[in-house]
Design a protein that fits this description.
Keywords: Membrane, Transmembrane, Transmembrane helix. The chain crosses the membrane at residues 16-38, 50-72, 84-107. The protein is mainly α. The chain has one domain. It is built from 4 helices and no strands. Helix 1 runs antiparallel to helix 2. The longest helix is centred in the C-terminal third of the chain and has 33 residues, at 119-151. It is elongated. The termini are far apart. The model has no long low-confidence stretch (mean pLDDT 75).
């Protein structure tokens, strides 16, 4: 007697769109940073400081996590997608910290930045952006955690 086949899984347009978009974004990041970072061997690339390496690692990890997360949803592995979401929250907080501190480090080294990033204007924005971003992330992560704990 033949074994019954599993019903075909219908692909949603969203699954294809977001997975494709994430792969395209990964390609842009790799191509954009290949000459200065990836092809130099990310660890051995001569960069101004360890902080810039940490910044590159965090932001590269974020885009890789985006590809993994969209692929997990597209294949229906929602449970693992949700578990990795906690790592994404931690990574997002690290990205805010490393992004701001790497920019401040670049300003201290005298980097040429666009006019809207002049030291006096940027430093006044940094305090408000970092504190509001930290509060928002804490609120979002905390409310999600509380919701999960109370529903379990």
């Amino acid at each position: 007697m033949p074994t019954p086949l599993a019903p075909p899984v219908m692909k949603r347009a969203d699954d294809v769109f977001f997975t494709t978009l994430s792969v395209i974004m990964l390609a842009f990041v790799v191509v954009g940073f290949a000459p200065s970072y990836f092809l130099r061997g990310a660890v051995f690339a001569t960069l101004p400081s360890l902080l810039v390496h940490l910044h590159g690692a965090a932001f590269s990890s974020w885009i890789i996590l985006f590809v993994v997360q969209s692929s997990l949803v597209a294949t229906g592995n929602i449970r693992l997608h949700r578990k990795l979401g906690y790592a994404g929250a931690v990574l997002a907080a690290l990205m805010v910290i490393f992004g701001i501190t790497a920019t401040i480090g670049a300003l201290r080294r005298g980097a040429e930045l666009p006019s809207f990033f002049t030291p006096p204007r940027f430093s006044s924005r940094t305090r408000s952006v970092s504190s509001s971003s930290a509060r928002t992330l804490a609120w979002l992560f905390g409310s999600e955690t509380i919701a999960r704990c109370t529903s379990a």
